[in-house]
Design a protein that fits this description.
alpha+beta, two-stranded antiparallel sheet, about 15% helix
């Protein structure tokens, strides 16, 4: 169900630390550890769902995808905030 990483998925460094714990309030209600690579600073979930299980975290009518389609006002607000955040330097 989960895959524990021993190296950064981006730079392959073995130097990473647990950075924070986040809870999926929307779908699974699970908590996930977010690690930070000390070499390249990328954040990643560890352990992470396996390729076979990852789809279950997105298989929900209330999931807001990263597509341009918006189904309701919540989607529109989410996408506006995401666009604003990504444009900040």
């Amino acid at each position: 169900m989960y895959e524990r990483l021993t190296k950064c998925p981006l730079c392959k460094s073995e130097q990473f630390i647990n950075h924070l714990v986040v809870k999926d309030h929307a779908i699974s209600k699970e908590s996930f550890i977010i690690c930070e690579c000390q070499n390249c600073k990328v954040w990643f979930t560890n352990p992470r769902p396996t390729e076979e299980n990852i789809a279950t975290y997105y298989d929900n009518p209330s999931y807001i995808s990263h597509q341009d389609k918006s189904k309701n006002i919540t989607d529109l607000v989410y996408k506006a905030v995401r666009k604003y955040t990504l444009n900040q330097n």
